[in-house]
Amino acid sequence: MKKVVHLAAFCCLLLLTACGETPAAEVAEAATAVAPQIATEVPTEIPTEVPATATTAPTNTPAPTATATAAPTDTPEPTATPTDVPTETPTTVPTVTVVATAVPATATTAPPAPVAAPLPAPAPVGPNLLSNPGFEQGGVSWEVQNSGGQPTIYSAADKPQFIHTGQQAAANIGFWRTTFFQRVSGDVIVPGTTYRAGVWVKIWSSSGEDRTVSQDPGDVGAQVCINVIGESDRWLDTSYCSGIVRPIDTWQFISVDAVAQTDRISILLVAGYTGPNHPTHNEVMWDDATMGTAPSAATATPPPAAGPVRPNPIAFNPTALRDSMNGVRATIEQAGGLLDRLYNGQGGTCAEYQGYYDDAIRSATYSGVPDDWAGIYNDYIFAVENFLGTNESINSLCDGGGGSISGLNYGAARVGINDSLNRLIPAIEAANAKIGG
Fold first, then answer.
1. Residue 224 near residue 200 (C-beta atoms within 8 A)
2. Angle, CA 394 vertex, CA 392 and CA 400 arms, to 5°
3. Measured CA distances, 227 to 194, 206, 332, 383 (Å)
4. Which CATH number is correct for 112-299, 2.60.120.260, 3.40.50.1970, 2.120.10.30, 3.40.50.720?
5. Calpha distance 233→263 (Å, rounded)
6. What pLDDT digit, counting tens, does each position of 209-251 carry?
7. Confidence band (pLDDT; 50, 70, 90) for 418?
8. Are 268 and 184 in contact (CB under 8 A)?
């Protein structure tokens, strides 16, 4: 019986083995056929559908992939914080910068034609001692300092906007500092007499080509001087000058007084740069110059409606002159302190400032000044005229109703005040020494 059982089991085993060989071979063949197909298809599908393969095939791969994607998503959050900070910081800083740059913008923008200030002094009385005062004969009788040449002349036919009256005017063109002068000598000049020189002046300073208006005008100024011994150098101690004026696109009359020390004197028309801003075109035009004795007491004073003007001379008196000098010193010092407060926003009014300015205009002038007092008197006159000329822009601002004082105008006015005091204070000390008080 056992043999029968063993025989039956053996037969079953053989049957199973025979049946299992065929599927194994087929499976092996199928695997061999499919493998190349997978090998060729997988690379094609992975690049095309990376997210799908990364999500579907390896179950663990999506976790790092998702983490990597989430990390960059968080990174922009710190980026957003710096973006807000710079945005706020520049917003605050430019607010200050705009205020700071607003003043120069006013100074460099082409201004409307300014209103000319009141005449610093009435025109001289008597005959005009100058030859060819209006340049109608070209540059005849006039010289350019250090060159021996004659001034450039403009005509009404070509440049009518640069002519004050008549058909011609003189012009400084593209200069550093240029002086036109004319010397007057002989019996017409009496030592010890107060003479007055005056001239009309206009400035065109522009970065553009339109000759009827100044675009972004530069730092250009003009002044008239008298040299009391007939020299041509503005920087000599014997030269006495008006303040520097800047009449952009308008005509302005300027004048100065001085006492002749010899039988010859000179009028100097000085033009030059007053700062670093030099646009393409810088031209100063001169016309209708005058030279004569300062008005006498008999000359009618202009009506008050025309505004304060320099007074007619009175008879010389040493004590009166010294007192006038002390009064002018106090006026200029007080005007300087007020100017500083106005510029720095520390209080003060235009009315107060113009009170000092008008006091300087009305300060006394003298006739019959002796030779030994001529230098002292001329320093006194320089201090007054220089203060008035360099502070004219502040006075005009007040005339126009007030406003912000630009750094340029403040600087020019403050330098003018300092220069006036530097000339006046030693003159007062010299006067005290002569009087003995």
1. no
2. 100
3. 12, 32, 25, 16
4. 2.60.120.260
5. 18
6. 998 899 888 888 899 999 999 999 988 889 999 888 889 999 9
7. very high
8. no
